[in-house]
Design brief:
With 276 residues, this protein is an alpha/beta fold. The protein contains eight helices and twelve strands. The strands form three sheets. The protein has a seven-stranded mixed β-sheet with strand order 3-2-1-4-7-6-8, with helices on both faces. The protein has a three-stranded antiparallel β-sheet with strand order 10-12-11. A two-stranded antiparallel sheet has the order 5-9. β11 and β12 (271-274) form a beta hairpin. It is globular, with a radius of gyration of 19 Å. The N and C termini lie far apart (48 Å).
Length: 276
């Protein structure tokens, strides 16, 4: 227990050091990376209004320095609070326009995460697509991780065992298809895609790194309701009752093998079969 606590304290201290020293090191990174060839990669980031200042601004500012010649696409989800959303979209447009390699689009009405991911894929100029949530922190070494870890050499890979940050190839999209936009909110779209991949004989890999970490949800100013005006603590699966019901209506699942099912590694239910 003491070892676990010490490791967490050490990790937290490392991120504090990264934050404090980044303003100075960013100038060195900017000069060094400006002369390097960009990786064959497009980066996409999904965001929404409640994370603009705390999450999106620092992330995009850092990504633009670490990947100066790389296409970065930012998609802002809509929100049920229309007036606040319009105000946010104005700030969002102005902020993104300040970066030469950042493309962006925003929505007034809330869309599903599948839709947002699909828009990133559709807009990407590279066959290698890295999709990130906005609520993450990255170290200066994240660029080296992307280039040297092998993540660009596998069809699909999550980072640190989370679909909050993953790489997908266009070849996989052409074989499996885009994410199912029948998932109209958030949750279940990754389970569905893994099952569809399994039907095609494909499996996602996972690559770990200390150069990326999720922000502490306790420290972020979490709103009581999400973009759809719902309290996620009261939603099935902790995200969306609608998406959970849609997933269950689409797939039959079991812990034990049954006729016609495929094995989906890493999911709570091991075997999956389309109902239709």
């Amino acid at each position: 227990m003491k070892q676990v606590h010490f490791t967490k304290v050490l990790s937290r201290a490392g991120w504090v050091f990264e934050s404090l020293t980044w303003p100075l090191r960013s100038h060195l990174c900017r000069r060094a990376l400006r002369r390097s060839s960009p990786p064959d990669l497009s980066i996409g980031v999904t965001t929404y209004k409640d994370r603009f200042d705390d999450c999106l601004r620092p992330l995009i500012s850092k990504l633009s320095i670490l990947f100066p010649g790389t296409q970065i696409t930012v998609i802002a989800n809509g929100h049920y609070l229309a007036e606040e959303q319009n105000e946010f979209l104005g700030k969002f447009d102005t902020f993104c326009a300040g970066f030469s390699n950042v493309e962006h689009e925003g929505y007034s009405d809330p869309r599903g995460l599948s839709f947002l991911w699909n828009r990133i894929i559709q807009r990407s100029s590279s066959d290698n697509i890295l999709i990130l949530n906005d609520d993450i922190m990255i170290r200066a070494g994240f660029r080296r991780f992307v280039e040297e870890s092998g993540i660009l050499d596998v069809p699909v890979a999550t980072i640190n065992a989370s679909w909050s940050h993953f790489r997908i190839s266009r070849a996989v999209v052409e074989k499996v298809g885009l994410f199912d936009e029948g998932f109209t909110e958030i949750g279940g779209e990754d389970d569905d895609y893994l099952a569809r991949m399994a039907l095609e004989g494909l499996q996602a890999q996972n690559i770990t790194t200390g150069t990326l970490a999720s922000r502490s949800k306790r420290r972020m100013k979490a709103p009581r309701l999400n973009s759809y005006g719902k309290d996620m603590t009261k939603e099935a699966g902790g995200y969306s009752t609608l998406n959970t019901e849609y997933l269950l209506s689409k797939w039959e699942t079991s812990d034990e093998y049954f006729e016609g099912a495929v094995e989906v590694a890493g999911r709570k239910r091991r075997y999956w079969k389309l109902r239709r």
